Amino acid sequence: MTKKKPLNHGQLRRMRANHEKRLNRGHSQNDAPELQDSSLGQEQPAIVISRFGQHADIETASGQVVRCNIRRNIGSLVCGDKVLVRLASDTNLDEPTTVRAGIGGVVEAVHPRHSLLSRPDLYDGVKIIAANIDQILIVSSVLPSFSTQIIDRYLVAAEDTGIQPVIVLNKIDLLDDALKPEIDAALAVYEKIGYQVFKVSSHEQTGIDELQALLKDKVSVFAGQSGVGKSSLINALLPDVDLIIGDVSENSGLGQHTTTTAKLLHFPAGGDLIDSPGVREFALWHLPPERVGWCFIEFREYLGGCKFRDCKHGSDPGCALRTAVEDGHIANERFANYHKIIASLDEQRHARHFRHSVDDL
Ligand code: GDP
Ligand code: ZN
To answer: What does pTM read for this prediction?
Structure first.
């Protein structure tokens, strides 16, 4: 097999431009009736509940949902963005929460974001999925398996975004007396270092009230491995919503970009959910080792205290982290998981490099 050279920036840019041209072919701007500036009302605040192609569905403060065009000077617009919109003056204010067929306004400006969720993207390097999220509920479960290593991977990914993680253990109806002490002890480690832990059962509705209180007044996402019960939990909290998302307007003729589009929904008991397959796949990708260490929040006070500046926190002499583990200030399991994560990221980096240079391009 001959190795292909990785593409340079110019080549990538051209590929991307062609790709966008292709995507835009079947549904050109002409499908959307142009709005004249003179027919637009005053600017008003709104939130993006869904972004697809050249349009966004926004919700105004009064709860009206309107499909909007986006001013060209707006570089990036995603679900959760706080915006200023001008609605067409004929947009009917008496019909809240209905999406008009066709375009009813223009997004004029975007407020700065306080947080971002993104994922790696072949063309852009990084693709932003959603903005202004307040907390990430990391869902894990008793069965098929309980793993602190997986919880720690999600915690590291969450800490890297700066968004507050919260740990949710689902399926506690399956906890038996043999398993319970072990899992309680593992979760106590997280509570000790300052994380909130919720133990729930979506099947038996245990702990759902407490979750509702947590979600109130915040924008949340649910993350976690497939099978832990994210859909079940979301259904318990948001009944009657057909979540995974493919419902962006069949009737507008604007085409379907729906399958991975993040969408913002309101919990009946208060608070918002942003969800999509992309959001749920939120995971740890590449991070430099120093950053991984910083994302273990209880390590922070010891980082920089090692004898050697490039300490790998293994068997290096004078390692402040290892001393903290030996003195009982850092849990053994967290320290072990840190090393496993570093090792796996190393492997992943090699794998990605191989893939990009041989197969993908
Ligand atoms: P997701 O992949 O994270 O969205 O997980 P699902 O919501 O699809 O749930 C995966 C499986 O776990 C399904 O068979 C659910 O019925 C089951 N499950 C979800 N919540 C609970 C729970 O609280 N208790 C039990 N025993 N099973 C659950
Ligand atoms: Zn060290």
So the answer is: 0.83
